[in-house]
Amino acid sequence: MISNLAAGVQAFTSNVFLVSGDRRVLVDAGANFDVVPKIEERGGIDAVVMTHTHPDHVGNLADVKEAFGVEAWGFDTDQPGIDHAIADGEMVTIGDHEYEALHTPGHKNDHLCFYSDDAGVLFAGDLIFQNGSFGRTDLEEGDHGALIESIERVKERVDEDFEEMHVGHGPSVTNEPYGHVDAALQMASSAFRR
């Protein structure tokens, strides 16, 4: 089961997904609200996995790690709060499934997406959003060309019939998410050509 612990929060934060199962994992930690009680209510966690380290995704990370005695995994251990590196292509257990980590720079250099064929789930971070929206590239480390290549890579990797896309901001996509990936690629490409 995947729950967004940031649902209904008015503060500026990323989504925070708690994935229950054999390995209870928090995907991104959010910011500017107290997520610890929400995790406690659901029985705690075993680890934190980060899509990337922008402040709105890591603001709560230190508090979560301290409260639950867990460590954080991400692409770059030089980033504050990341204890263990996840390499491109590495398999990571999230809940009851194995997810492939895909290094997807463009929004930020350390950005990862996580995809499971078995679960039919993509954690897209800030690469792709609902209705063809895509991550900003006007921040430090942003690179629009790299973002397009990253979206292309995700589109090639996911199954056309995958079931759920959980994104860094806004609602998750549970109705034909592949179409949203394709739309994001088209919109990002057309914005690049202008």
SSE inventory with pairings:
Elements lengths: L1 E3 L12 E3 L5 E3 L8 H6 L5 E3 L5 H4 L2 H8 L3 E3 L9 E2 L5 E4 L2 E7 L8 E5 L4 E5 L18 H14 L6 E4 L9 H17 L1
Helix pairs in contact: 4-5
Description:
The protein is of the alpha/beta class and 194 residues long. It has one domain (2-193): Ribonuclease Z/Hydroxyacylglutathione hydrolase-like (Metallo-beta-lactamase, Chain A), CATH 3.60.15. Helices cover 25% and strands 22% of the residues. It is built from five helices and eleven strands, in the order E-E-E-H-E-H-H-E-E-E-E-E-E-H-E-H. It has helices spanning 36-41, 55-58, 61-68, 144-157, 177-193, and strands at 2-4, 17-19, 25-27, 47-49, 72-74, 84-85, 91-94, 97-103, 112-116, 121-125, 164-167. The protein has a six-stranded mixed beta sheet, with no helix packed on it. A hairpin with an 8-residue loop joins strand 8 and strand 9 (112-116). Helix 4 runs antiparallel to helix 5 (177-193). The longest helix is centred in the C-terminal third of the chain and has 17 residues, at 177-193. It is globular.
Keywords:
five-stranded mixed β-sheet, alpha/beta, 194 residues, Metallo-beta-lactamase, Chain A, 11 strands, six-stranded mixed β-sheet
Structure in a nutshell:
This protein has 194 residues and is of the alpha/beta class. The chain has helices spanning 36-41, 55-58, 61-68, 144-157, 177-193; strands at residues 2-4, 17-19, 25-27, 47-49, 72-74, 84-85, 91-94, 97-103, 112-116, 121-125, 164-167.
Q: What would you say the CATH architecture is?
A: 4-Layer Sandwich
Instruction: Summarize the amount of helix as a percent range.
Output: 25-40%
The description of the largest β-sheet is: 6 strands, mixed
Number of domains: 1
CATH fold type: Metallo-beta-lactamase, Chain A
